[in-house]
Structure formats: C-alpha cells, structure tokens
Amino acid sequence: MKKLIALTAALALSTSAFAGFQGNSNNGGFNSGNGGSTQNVSTIAQAKKAHDDTYVSLSGYIVSKVGDEKYTFKDSTGQINVEIDDDLWGGLQATPKTKVRIYGQVDKEYGRTEIDVKRISR
Questions:
Q1: Distance CA 10, CA 111 (A)
Q2: Nearest in space to 44 (alpha carbons), one of 84, 77, 82, 83
Q3: CB crowding 100-116: b at 16 or more within 10 Å, else e
Q4: Which residues form the signal peptide (predicted)?
Q5: How many angstroms separate the CA atoms of 13 and 36, rounded?
Q6: CB 73 within 8 A of CB 56
Q7: Number of neighbours of residue 19 by Cβ within 10 angstroms
Q8: Were both Cys, which of 19, 37, 69, 84 would link to 54 (CB 3.0–4.6 Å)?
Q9: Can you tell me the distance from the alpha carbon of 59 to that of 68, in angstroms, rounded to the nearest whole number?
Q10: What are phi and psi of 41, to 5 degrees?
C-alpha cells in the first residue's frame, strides 16, 4: 500500500512538473524560429514575408467581405485576406472607413498567405 501511495505521489509530481514545460507565454518556452515567431510584424508587407504561424498586430481597414468569415484587409503597404470568426466581433461594427486593429497569426497554405484573426478591436 505504501508503494502505491508513493508511486501515485511521484506520478502527480512528475505530471505537474511537466506541465510547466509546455512553453506557454506566461512561463516562457522554446522558439525554434520556424513558426509562432514573436518578431514584430505590424504591416501587411511584413506579414506576407513572415513564416507560417507568426503573430501579427495590424492596423488598417476591412474593405470587403469575400466569403464566409473571410474579408479583405488593407493598410498602407498592401492588402491581404483575413479570417475573422463571427464570435470575435463582439458587437463591433466596421465599414471600409473604420480603422481597426487585428491580432492574429500568419496562415500559409497552398501557396497563399492570409491572417487567422484571434482578436479585433477599434
């Protein structure tokens, strides 16, 4: 019985210790440089050159809707398609003249680059 208790305690400790090495932003972590980069990407031109999964913060205008949850986003350096889930709008109303800030990640697939938006604000 003592061995079972000791084994259970050791397993619990090793599991909680492992949880601290998952690389979340609060605890730091490993960055291979191949994705999920924290480089400062603040323009569409930079986003188009960035690696897949690079985080971006872009300021500009949503100029058109091109599909279900897909929009064309424009800044002074160009334009790019963005995906904004309906539940992210949070009551925000935007027109092509409304300047917004989007936070998200570069998504590179099948020879195209777009932004997967995680948050949008005015």
A1: 48
A2: 77
A3: bebebbbbeeeeebbbe
A4: 1-19
A5: 29
A6: no
A7: 10
A8: 37
A9: 22
A10: -115, 110
- Rounded to the nearest angstrom, the gap between the alpha carbon of residue 1 and the centroid of all alpha carbons in its chain is 48
Query: pLDDT tens, 74-109?
Result: 999 999 999 999 999 999 999 999 999 999 999 999
* CB burial of residue 21 (10 Å; 0-12, 13-18, 19+): exposed
Q: How many residues does the chain have?
A: 122
Rounded to two decimals, the pTM is 0.69
Instruction: Output the CA–CA distances (angstroms, integers) from residue 35 to 16, 87, 93, in the order listed.
Output: 26, 26, 32
Considering the chain, what is the average pLDDT of its residues? 81
Compute how many other C-beta atoms are within 10 angstroms of the C-beta atom of residue 48: 17
**Residue whose C-alpha is closest to residue 60's, from 1, 3, 2, 117:** 117
Burial 26-39 (b: 16+ CB within 10 A, else e): eeeeeeeeeebbee
